[in-house]
Amino acid sequence: MDLAARRSYRRLQAEHLHNDDRDKGKGRHARIYRNRKQCLRSARRTIVRFEARIGFMSGSHSEDETDMRASGAKLRLAADTTDEIDLVIQDVSMRFNTREGTVTAVDGVSFEIKRGEFVSIIGPSGCGKSTVFNILGGLVRGYDGSVVVGGERISGPHASIGMVFQEESTFPWRTVIDNVAFPLEVKGVPKAERYVIARKFIDMVGLTGFEQRYPSELSGGMRQRVAIARTLVFEPKILLMDEPFAALDEQTRVLLGDKVLKIQQDLRQTTLLITHNITEAVQLSDRVLIMTFRPGKVKRIVDINLPRPRQGDVVGSDAFGRYVAEIWNDLREEASRGMAEAEDSARLRGA
Ligand SMILES: Nc1ncnc2c1ncn2[C@@H]1O[C@H](COP(=O)(O)OP(=O)(O)OP(=O)(O)O)[C@@H](O)[C@H]1O
């Protein structure tokens, strides 16, 4: 980790501790952070994840990035790059040792994602979706099989991969712009320049005008957009999202889905979305991968042949409805197995 990154990371930790204290106090800051304990806990987890990823984020600037800065922070789109980045998951299995014995979370999962493709993974609760997500993000070790990014087998966080998490992950003590600019701060990009870049991504997620707000002054959907912009700002070629809209109401979820659809179509990023929501999976994806209930295996991959560029109104078409019904047909069987197992263990616990 270089000096600038270490400084940014220490500053973040110090800000976090300081604001944890403020939370107990009175006054404006206490108002801003009141009832934000959950948020602070999540921020702590985010810091830990940043710590895991900060090593590569602090790496020296590539020529492309130098050019980007010289040309007034012009966005470098994934589609403009010549290097072919695919994601290959080959025969991945993961077992956890628990008090009840060994749990096989995922079992022999293989699939690949082409450059610029949008793939969703859908499956019943507990089928290992998040485990796959964490393995791809390099946050879990000790699995069998391999993950290959752009032809290179990875064994930890990779510079090409950006992650958006399900839970609240904004830093509550930082304004929107300082949240979004954080990865650039870690990279050592000067303040004025990082604000220029951050504003572009804030605009892309539709939050222009809210740059100086704190996360507690935003709605849940807006906070999640801040988290998405903060991930996009370091221009990952592959974007992984683990149920990013799970905590949102249905309308916000659909509107945010439209936003993500547009961003992905503009940036042409290779994207993997973990979701429980069939409508969302069909609306956004080129392919939907259905997982079995425990142990999680690939049950089936459905090609979504709906036209692109897709608009939000695609959800009203007959073809859309047929895809939803087809996926639900496969999923129902797995969800029913999950439900039956949960009822059995509840009965055993009660016996
Ligand atoms: N760190 C861990 N230690 C022990 N068991 C774990 C761990 N992480 C996951 N598991 C177990 O592995 C299985 C798969 O969990 P995972 O969170 O990947 O499923 P999921 O499909 O993402 O579930 P959900 O949709 O409810 O979020 C579950 O049985 C879970 O209890």
What's the number of extended β-strand segments? Answer: 10
**Which CATH architecture of the largest domain would you pick?**
3-Layer(aba) Sandwich
In terms of DSSP E residues, the strand content is 15-25%
CATH fold assignment of the largest domain: Rossmann fold
Helix content: 40-55%
The distinct bound ligands, ions and cofactors come out as: adenosine-5'-triphosphate
- String of helices and strands: HHHHEEEHEEEHHHHEHEHEEH
Backbone structural class: alpha/beta
User: Treating each run of at least 4 consecutive H or I residues as one helix, how many helices?
Assistant: 12
- Give the C-level CATH assignment of the largest domain: Alpha Beta
